[in-house]
Amino acid sequence: MSRKRVLPPAVLILCTAALVGTAPAVASPQTTRTLAAPVAPARPATPLRILLTNDDGYNAPGIRKAFKRLTAAGHDVTIVAPLTNQSGTGTKMSNAPTITVKHPEPKVWAVDGSPGDSVAFGLSEVFEGRAPDLVVSGTNFGPNVAGLATHSGTVGGAVAAVESGVPAIALSTGGLSAPDPVTTVNAMGPTLDFAVKLIDRLRTRAESGPLLPKGVGLNVNHPVVGADGKGTAAGVSTTFQDPQTVLEPDFTDSGDGTWKVGVTVDLRPAAKGGDLEAVGTGRIAVSPISANWNTGAADHAVTAALLTGLLP
Asked: Measuring CA to CA, which residue among 80, 142, 71, 141 is closest to residue 109?
């Protein structure tokens, strides 16, 4: 089942405004808004304190490239990420009485748990007493659009931050075809260049306030562009999570009480204005996300009508 998040129109407008001028043409979930391009602001001087996490593991190429790029942009970056690959763990949090944490080098902490565990440890211990200005999760190897986002550890790390009141951005690199290691890693460069521009834009718009509205994070998916993956995206779209699952589970009976587990691709036409459509057309998809399962006022009203008169 797809996790559908419906956010207030004001939030979508804010996010759309924050992206205008970053790349051509910005699309909203339902309509296309034409907004005057702002005068390009100077880069804010004060660096951000950033907790950097992911689901591929603390030593994966994506997070290491993100550390270098964000540091080069002038930010104070600390990695607090899983010790091992935790792809597909979603918003999982461990309930074990102990957890193993390694500190292999300065500015790097490796947590033997999920991205959510890593963010929780980072906020509680590494950044104890003073929360980071931003949590960045990624960049992930491969996309986190449509149903993939629902189960993504990369997005799960961002959700863990948002529910703790810290602004967060999930970053992913890749299209819907099977990721090629070389081109995907190459495309992480443009992904992180865009992330720096996005963070600068959020800082400028926020002035001295929070980078994003309370309870809101951003799920950013950057396509692989060009034969070598180093191409420039066609534009930036403010999107919503496409409701389709993309992958369907497939089980084969081995005849001995066990079943072989696999997945099949079930790709249907992309929803207009969704993240799947944007990435499929070579655009960067930026989807506002929340840290809860609320569906919005309309669906709440429909449910209330269904329950009218129903007694225990």
From this structure: 80
